[in-house]
Specification:
The protein is an alpha+beta fold and about 130 residues long. It is built from four helices and seven strands. Strands 2-1-5-6-7-4-3 form a seven-stranded antiparallel sheet. The protein is globular, with a radius of gyration of 13 Å.
Amino acid sequence: MPIPKSVASFNRFVTNPLGRLVAGWAPGFAIIRHRGRKTGKTYSTPINIFKVEDRFVIALTYGSNADWLKNVFAAGGCTIKNRNKEIDLVGPTLVATSAGMSIMPLPVRVILRAANVTEFVELRKV
């Protein structure tokens, strides 16, 4: 079961603003920039992300129904700030649990299993 919407709402207004201060340069984190599919407004959301060759994998801790993910799918891609570099990503694809989990470092896998995270999205570098 993904993280409840009540926690997502708290994170949107409290945790995310704090997370944006470090997520652009901290290992295992990034700031994903996406445009609202209804509003056209640009949003910046801190995420956990892991690189494998020219692909990036994100654990969907809120499930595949998260607004930022809907925006990324609608646009066909996004930009991330990862380790102080701007990277354009395209081709969002949902990934099977076993494939997504195998990419995650062991400590992250333990946390994701405990949180019952079962969905991942993969994007390719442009």
